[in-house]
Amino acid sequence: MTDREQQKEQLKQLIRESRVAERWSKSRRTIQRWRASGKMPRHIRIGSTVFYLIDDIIAHEDALTSTGKED
């Protein structure tokens, strides 16, 4: 695999902040506040655009998902 192909593959693993907001039916501002308060997974900033690794978002969702069991 060439360097260019590797870069393209890595970009496929990123999700924009705006897409996370859509996915969770929240405003971008809410996502930004959560990020500032440490409630979001690590992020990557490229220029003025914020990205998350899709695997980190899925893991975050899994961690927040209720099992339906009472403690």
Automatic annotation (TrEMBL):
SUPFAM superfamilies: Putative DNA-binding domain. One of its GO terms (molecular function) is DNA binding. The keyword DNA-binding applies. Keywords: DNA-binding. InterPro entries: DNA-bd_dom_put_sf. This is DNA-binding protein. The lineage of its organism: Bacteria, Pseudomonadati, Pseudomonadota, Alphaproteobacteria, Rhodobacterales.
